[in-house]
Design brief:
Layout (H helix, E strand, L loop, with lengths): L3 H15 L22 H8 L3 H5 L16 E5 L5 H10 L4 E6 L2 H8 L2 H8 L6 E5 L15 E7 L8 H11 E14 L5 H4 L2 H5 L6 E2 H11 L5 E8 L4 H7 L4 E9 L10 E5 L9 E5 L2 E4 L3 E4 L1 H9 L6 E5 L18 H8 L12
Parallel strand pairs: 1-2, 1-4, 2-3, 4-5, 5-6
Antiparallel strand pairs: 5-8, 7-8, 9-12, 9-13, 10-11
Helix pairs in contact: 2-4
Length: 361
């Protein structure tokens, strides 16, 4: 088996010099950023203002843009060219702060070139972004303090990291209590065989290192996070016929999940919650995830974990919360697998990027 250092070196080479643009990828992963769900106007506006050269080298697989980022301290894991960082820069506003971390020197150097451009584009007195070269599984060594971040975001890079537990643990550590990890990533329909993990191109494309989606649930719980909530999903098509043959019966999907850092001693009680209609872009209803849509002034009963999330997170001012005196069942805080499976959701939404006529390079 390749060591973690070997995997990092391969990924750095693959994204630092081999890939010139998202069009060089051999799957439809980057195209999955075209969400099947309605995209808020503020997000499309922010993305449209990112410099074209930055967007050109975007390699993400989703749209990890949660609501209500104004004034937040945001950390983007595997920031790459900086596309998402600069869009977040617009969304958090002058009072917010966005940090991008990436291990690839070429990408960090390239992304820093556009700091002043976006500062002026957004009309800010001073930049509100910074880029750090480092490893997302070693955030403390990169100078990111514990309990210092409101939202950790990531776009299709955890699948490139061999130690996913370390990534989630580090994200958990740097988040403030009530903070959230909101990320898009590639997932496999089954456990990826070892021989695929040894293939450098498969790993560079995210296929060799994709997590079996069910393993995310136990992994998240093991580091202290809440149950993952699936926000959106898309099927991923493999363009390269050789890579498709190597994948065999393993299918891939892009999934966007949100996980929260709740107090360890949090009492979980069911609640009746009513959305006030106060989140920008979501005045009539707040689409929280694929199974929770809160309509304005409509009371909804939620389980103990969701009630705790709404109580402890930045969304607390946007809800009226009435705790119910109900005993908690052993399974009430964990959604059914059908609500967490990105393949089922992608099928339900009819969200699949059509196979391209592109040939391998």
């Amino acid at each position: 088996m390749a060591t973690c250092d070997d995997v990092r070196a391969n990924v750095q080479k693959y994204y630092g010099s081999r890939l010139e643009s998202s069009g060089d990828l051999q799957t439809s992963a980057a195209s999955c950023s075209l969400s099947c769900r309605p995209v808020p106007r503020s997000v499309t506006d922010a993305l449209s203002q990112v410099h074209p050269e930055v967007t050109k080298r975007f390699f993400g697989c989703g749209l990890p843009f949660p609501a209500k980022l104004e004034g937040c301290r945001v950390l983007d894991l595997g920031s790459g060219s900086g596309r998402d960082v600069y869009a977040f820069s617009k969304l958090v506003g002058q009072s917010g702060l966005v940090t991008g971390i990436d291990m690839t020197e070429e990408l960090i150097t390239a992304s820093r070139q556009y700091i002043v451009y976006h500062q002026k584009k957004f009309g800010y007195e001073k930049p509100n972004v910074t880029f750090i070269q480092g490893y997302m599984e070693k955030l403390s060594e990169a100078g990111i303090q514990s309990d210092s971040v409101d939202v950790v975001l990531s776009n299709c890079v955890i699948c490139l990291c061999p130690d996913k537990r370390a990534v989630l643990q580090q994200a958990y550590n740097v988040l403030k209590e009530g903070g959230e990890l909101f990320f898009s990533d590639m997932y496999a329909s089954k456990v990826v065989p070892d021989h695929m993990k040894e293939d450098t191109v498969l790993w560079g494309e995210g296929m060799g290192g994709s997590l079996f989606w069910q393993d995310l649930i136990s992994l998240a719980h093991s580091v202290g996070f809440s149950t993952p909530h699936l926000v959106s999903a898309s099927q991923i098509e493999i363009y390269n016929s050789e890579l498709k043959a190597k994948a065999g019966d393993v299918s891939y999907a892009s999934g966007t999940y949100r996980l929260f850092k709740l107090p360890q001693n949090q009492v979980m009680s069911e609640a009746l919650v009513t959305y006030k209609g106060t989140v920008a872009d979501f005045l009539d209803q707040l689409d929280f995830d694929s199974s929770h849509c809160f309509k304005k002034d409509v009371a909804v009963e939620v389980n103990g974990e969701m009630a705790a999330i709404l109580q402890r997170s930045r969304f607390f001012p946007d809800f009226k919360i009435q705790i119910l005196d109900k005993p908690r069942s052993s399974s009430e805080s964990t959604p059914q697998n059908c609500h967490l499976n990105p393949f089922l959701l992608a099928d339900k939404l009819g969200c699949s990027v059509r196979q391209s006529s592109k040939t391998s390079k």
